[in-house]
Amino acid sequence: MQLGASLAALQEIGCKVDCLNGIIGKYNARVLEEIAPDTDELDPDLEDAMVTDTAAPTKAQQRAMDVTAAGGVKAVSIAGVILNHKDNKKGQQDMYHMYFHCVLGCPCNFPDTSSIRYHCFAAGAAELIAYTLEYIEFMWVIKMSKAKPGFNHMEANLWAAVLTLPGTESVHMLDLGPYHTDHKTHIKKLIADPNLVISPKATSSHATLDGEPWHHPDAISTIHAQRDDLPYLHKLFVAFMEEALVTWEQFTSEFEYRGFIDSTTQEEKDLAWLPTTNDNNEGRLGSWWLYARTNPSSTIEQYNNIAMYTKNDAQEFMNTNFEPEDHCYVMRSHIEDAETNTAKVVVKVTKTVETAARIVAIIIVTDRVQLGHMNCTLLDEQLEAHRSRDSKVLIKARVKYKLDKLPALLAALDSKKGLLRRLWERNT
Predict the structure, then answer these.
(1) How far, in Å, are 219, 220, 238, 395 from residue 207 at the CA level?
(2) Which of 40-44, 90-94, 272-276, 346-350 has the highest mean pLDDT?
(3) pTM of the model
(4) DSSP-derived 3-state class of residue 230
(5) How far is CA 427 from CA 139, 382, 413, 417, 420, in A?
(6) Residue 11 burial (CB < 10 Å; 0-12/13-18/19+)?
(7) Which of 38, 111, 258, 385 allows an S-S link to 362, with CB 3.0 to 4.6 Å?
(8) Non-local CB neighbours of 25 within 8 Å, separated by 6+ positions
(9) Confidence category of residue 70, pLDDT binned at 50, 70, 90
(10) How far is CA 279 from the centre of its chain?
(11) Residue in 286, 249, 274 with CA at minimum distance from that of residue 172
(12) Rounded CA gap, 304 and 312, in Å?
């Protein structure tokens, strides 16, 4: 996980390298073997591990070892699958939320490593390094909370990994030439003097690209504290930055001094402007997602109103063209809309109250013979009455036919009788 420390440090200094090209490409076996020949590898995946048990080198064994990855990025990738799986029905994210809410005192999610975005793996590495002991304890909780205590193959790999641990839309892309130049200059400075980041005396004002405080100070302090136990940290960090510089040079070759973009005028750059996304709806959806995250009590209607107001320069239009009667009309329309919404809420609440009163008025029938002669409509009423008192009673969509309704109703009666019996025994 020494490479994980390099990943975390990279996030802190603000070097935004594409995750696929700038990070994942740095943990291949060749680089690890050259710099850290005794680096531990993760076990092959379960389906591949089955073919690596014998000593004879077969094609299947060779394929299993060829596809087996190692290093910090692989460990963070496994952690992302276990702790923040993109499928809510898989992974341990629910237990993770509860456990780390108690440990850290605030809600948190493990970085989403299934997404292709800047810093997704670096952020995960920072989490694992900053809270190594907490993750070790959490993995132990996962292991012991099962009916048959133990790890599956993927959990065992993550356990081994943590246990061995010692743009904004308003910016024109064509105007980013100076930024890219500063970025590459900063990377060269760190290659020449890695202690600007990994030394215990390192400060964010000299190490980060923008001079701002560390994004994750706990991760940096942990790296500094374990520096003596990471003999390859210096070499790995330098190699990582050198490869990042090569990648960054490739990504920004169009912005070279006196190149095609640098030689164009501002008017020509403005003519070449394109939307930030291929689909305008994609950008709008992302904006709504960010807005909803910072304004959880807001609604989509409120967001749409704010977006249209800003996009259409409504305030400037009103300042230029509105007369006093126009303002009165807008306010009156707003009041009418509010009254309409209030009326809709009143109708909805009234309907809810009437439905609740109708259900309460239903007399629960306990005679099983009488229940057997009821039609579907009456059975639905009985089930609705039981459901209002017991949420475990099946909903109407689950019992569409009489053959299903009657057994469900009898089960609800048995459950009610059992509850009454327990209450009677408790009071006596």
Answers:
(1) 14, 11, 14, 60
(2) 346-350
(3) 0.41
(4) coil
(5) 44, 28, 21, 15, 11
(6) buried
(7) 385
(8) 243, 247
(9) low
(10) 23
(11) 274
(12) 12
Please write the tens of the pLDDT for every residue from 28-54. Answer: 445 555 655 555 554 554 444 444 444
Residue labelled with tokens 């839309």: 169
Residue 141 is encoded by which pair of tokens? 């909780």
CB 246 within 8 Å of CB 189 = no
Any idea where the domains of the chain sit in the sequence?
2-251, 280-321, 362-427
* Measured CA distances, 127 to 79, 104, 215, 220 (Å): 10, 12, 11, 11
Tokens of 273: 């402007």
**For 26, which DSSP code?**
G
Alpha helices in 1-92 (DSSP H): 2-13, 29-35, 46-49, 59-66, 72-83
Closest CA to 248 of 203, 287, 190, 200: 190
Distant-in-sequence, close-in-space partners of 66: CB < 8 Å, separation ≥ 6: none
> How many CB atoms are located within 10 Å of the residue 17 CB?
25
Three-state secondary structure call for residue 373: coil
Using the Cα atoms of residue 113, residue 114, residue 120 and residue 122 in order, give the sign of their dihedral: positive
Are 7 and 215 in contact by the 8 Å Cβ rule? The answer is no
Query: Per-residue b/e over 157-166, b at no fewer than 16 CB within 10 Å?
Result: bbbbbbeebe
CA distance 392 to 286: 38
What confidence tens digit (pLDDT) does each residue in 305-351 have? 888 988 888 899 999 999 999 999 989 988 888 888 888 888 889 99
Residue type present at position 189: K
Residue pair 158/79 in contact (Cβ under 8 Å)? The answer is yes
Q: What is the DSSP letter of 84?
A: S
Among 169, 170, 208, 168, residue whose Cα is nearest residue 186: 208
* Confidence grade of residue 191 (pLDDT, cut at 50, 70, 90): very high
The two tokens of residue 51 are 């073919």
Q: Is the pLDDT confidence value at 14 over 70?
A: no
DSSP states along 115-172: S--TTHHHHHHHHHHHTHHHHHHHHHHHHHTSSS----HHHHHHHHHHHT----TTS-
- Interhelix angle 217-225/120-130, rounded to 10 degrees, is 60
Query: 11 φ, ψ to 5°?
Result: -65, -40
pLDDT the model gives residue 163? 61
- DSSP H helices, 193-322, are 195-198, 204-207, 217-225, 233-251, 260-263, 266-271, 280-294, 300-311, 314-321
